[in-house]
Design a protein that fits this description.
Order of helices and strands: HHEEEHEHEEEE
Strand content: 15-25%
Protein name: Azurin
Number of domains: 2
Bound molecules: copper (II) ion
Membrane topology: Lipid-anchor
Distance between the termini: 35 Å
CATH topology of the largest domain: Immunoglobulin-like
CATH superfamily of the largest domain: Cupredoxins -  blue copper proteins
Number of helices: 4
Organism: Neisseria dentiae
GO cellular component, one term: cell outer membrane
GO molecular function: copper ion binding; electron transfer activity
Radius of gyration: 23 Å
Helix content: 25-40%
Largest sheet: 5 strands, mixed
Oligomer: single chain
Length: about 190
């Protein structure tokens, strides 16, 4: 599969490189109309290359969400998310949040999840979550303050959750964070609706 993808991107690169060469000659001519025609022509091979890349990408993922409707957040053994801000596109019908744990420590020692709530509810969700077990992903059962949450994962694992952007009220502040006991201080960020 990797080889196949490499071939596709090599082909896409060749296409765009080739497009560049074709347009170099006419663009050198002084007439303004010629130059405009040349830049219009150069748009074609470029978009061909882009669509070749796009089809290669969709081949590799089974149920790919709509374009731009997904974000990947990495977490590690240092109790850190790699993002301080999560941008959720309001125009998406569904928005997928992928959580990856790039560390090696087990879930019991360094488990991470992503929980989203209003910022003002975060402390309560975290302290109530601490009373839940790891099996319940450190989220109180039926907690209405929680808009979405992923399951708790350990090193090398990956999970995801899909949120409905319409559940975020205009003018409210939202946060994402990890509810593993003791992690909230370092593992939190703001959710921004764009
Ligand atoms: Cu954590």
């Amino acid at each position: 599969m990797k080889t196949y993808l490499a071939l596709i991107s090599a082909a896409a690169f060749a296409l765009s490189a080739c497009g560049g060469q074709e347009t170099a000659a006419p663009a050198a001519q002084p007439a303004a109309s010629e130059a405009t025609a040349a830049s219009a022509a150069s748009a074609a091979p470029a978009s061909e290359a882009a669509s070749a890349e796009a089809s290669a990408a969709s081949d590799s993922t089974a149920a790919a969400p709509a374009e731009g409707c997904e974000v990947v957040v990495n977490s590690d053994d240092q109790m850190k998310f790699d993002k301080q801000e999560l941008e959720i596109k309001k125009s998406c019908k569904e928005f997928k949040i992928v959580l990856k744990h790039t560390g090696k420590m087990p879930k019991a020692a360094m488990g991470h999840n992503i929980v989203i709530s209003k910022a003002e509810d975060a402390q309560g969700v975290v302290s109530d979550g601490a009373g839940a077990t790891a099996e319940k992903d450190f989220v109180k059962e039926g907690d209405a303050r929680v808009i979405a949450y992923t399951k708790l994962i350990g090193g090398g694992e990956e999970t995801s959750v899909t949120v409905d952007p319409s559940k975020f009220a205009e003018g409210s502040q939202y946060e994402f964070y990890c509810t593993f006991p003791g992690h909230y201080g370092l593992m939190r960020g703001t959710v921004k609706l764009i």
